[in-house]
Amino acid sequence: MSQRIRIAIIGGGPAGLMAADTLAPHAEVDLYEHGRNIGRKFLVAGQGGFNITNEAQGEDLLSAYSPKGFLDEALAAFGPGQLSGWLRETGIETFTGTSGRIFPVKGIKPVDVLALIRERLLRQGVRFHVEHVFTGFDTAGQVRIENADGPVMLDAERVIFALGGASWPVTGSTGIWPPLFSSIGVEIRAFEASNCGVEVAWPEGFIVAHEGKPLKNIRISAGEKSAWGEATLTAYGLEGNAIYPIVPAVRDGAMEVCVDLKPDSTPERLLERIGGKSPKNYAAGLNLNRTQTALLKAFTPKEVSGYAEQFAAHVKDLRIPVKGLRPIGEAISTVGGIPPGALGPDFSLKLHPHLYTIGEMVDWDAPTGGFLLQGCFAMGRHTANSILLATQMS
Predict the structure, then answer these.
(1) What is the pLDDT of residues 113-123, one digit of tens each?
(2) Does one domain contain both 34 and 147?
(3) What's the N-to-C CA distance of the chain in angstroms?
(4) Is 83 within a domain?
């Protein structure tokens, strides 16, 4: 490359940071963040266990993302193995948990991970500009930002946006940017919650006794979605890693979830375990705890408790009506934003090829367990490499 191009990145989350890291050795990179610090959502994501990626490979990895095929090229080039290697180069050792989730080793906190990434970028010459707010475009599609000194037009040949969605607004992902892109003709889809709890109208008195109790080692299904894991009973409904993967089905209109309280046993095996016990001992025969038993009682007809075959069938397929999803502000992630069809293969806007959009501001979805961060990192690397390749060829 005969001359280093100037590239601006707006947004200091994982997608923007990876793009900056990839571009910095070959370009002049300025990263703009509207908050006082970069990576605020990155830090919040680590509060519940910082699974930074997942060991899934091949179709197991690609099938976690929708729409199907949208992120295939980016993930094939920069998957969990490549991300783990990059983290190791940055000074962040990882380990794989029993669930396949990949975490920083014990003692390395999210704030440490962010600090090491920031130091890496500074060594490569990335210039950080905090408290710089993206405020829109001029008539030629040039980008406006504003800081304490007033409005500024960005001086950059390419601009990468990594503005986030609308989940966890306290971290800066406020979702206020869509009208600014609409003003330059870009289609925007309304944000909706993803990876969030589902709301249930609990029978009177039930949740008072069981709020906060876990349902461990269960399978939950809705529509064509199904997940094995754990859920927690909350005042508003159900939350947890067995719930998040079925959220798309609820979002698409499913009005109930189906809970298998004994996913490792067949109905026939359950009947064997009940044996000749009296109905009052069915639950004990299946080793159901008090919360499981109460849940079963709350959502099955009274007569079911007297018949072994029906009791076993409901243990395997307990239908719980749901009212909907929790609000966007409580969701771990969102869908909506810029449709994948509005983007080229390099994630540039078809209407404005010098502008790129990556991360959660684009309408794609994935479950928790490391897949969300992996997708963002992969998008940042892919866009940056695409820009470098195009610049070398021009």
Answers:
(1) 999 999 999 99
(2) yes
(3) 9
(4) yes
